Protein: Synaptotagmin-like protein 2
Organism: Antrostomus carolinensis
Amino acid sequence: ESDTASEISFQFNKHKKTPSIGSHSSDMASVSSVSGSVLSVYSGDFGSVDAQGTVEFALDYDEKNREFQVHVSQCKDLAVVDEKKGRSDPYVKTYLLPDKARMGKRKTSVKKRTVNPVYNEVLRYKIEKMVLLIQKLNLSVWHNDPLGRNSFLGEIEIDLASWDWSNRKLNWYPLKPRSLSAVNGVDHRGVMNLSIKYVPPGSLGKTCPKNPPSGEVHIWVKDVRDLLQLRPSGVDSFVKCYVLPDTSKKSYQKTRVIKRDTNPVFNHTIVYDGFHTEDLKDACVELTVWDHEKLTNHFLGGIRLGLGTGLSYGISVDWMDSTQEEVAFWQEMMSAANEWIEGLLPLRSL
């Protein structure tokens, strides 16, 4: 039922049940190299102060260097966060939306004890002009609190498709309260349609020629829907698969690239053998979707299928962080041997 399939051997027995931290550092401490933590655009405290004041900045695109430049000049009349001391320690932060993770955030230095900070700093993004024109610029001002949560002071959002690029002058813009539409929709990355199955060792009977001597996990990646459209032509996507804690070449598998499609159909099946039933508690299937480009691939979103306990073979790991939906999907597979379990799971930042 799938147009491509791969089968690889996956040996868990090299991981001891109670390893020392030192002996496991090479195997497990760096296993999350495939993905990193991405904070929300809106990671902070909104309730303490009301947005007020203005920000002065200019936008430009350097054609020669293929660079988007945000010249942040200054702010005026910002809200006071610490009323007892009458102070704010503001800085400016920018993201390109809708995919804040792809290009990352840029931020200015922190100016202490002022509601009228002067920055005169340029925040730069290496990005093609045609890609930039389907983005929005989110520029926000924050109070820096090194001992607590940073406080939101206001923002402005600009649709770069309608921006007048002949306007390179510094202009003043009023800071607005947080955008609820952006909060709710900024991290929508699409959904993955897949099925998984666990075949326990020897469960198919002696008469079955394909009866596995060790257990197998089957992963059928069917399709992905509603991917972020990074270019006017769409997106060239593929799916990577690892079974953590193993990030070796033996564990790594990927689908073919589907070009110019935000709803790619992969229909790709992967089989991992060497799975004993007890390994299902400590392993995690990580499926990530990437946009393929010549120089570098860009992360679009992913899922992690496991029990989400934060532990793997007694070691604390950041990748054992499955959501409730992902945990329920994995548990259903564990409780229904030899049966395909179907799911439609939202992609997320990892």
About this structure: The first strand starts at residue 4 and ends at 9.
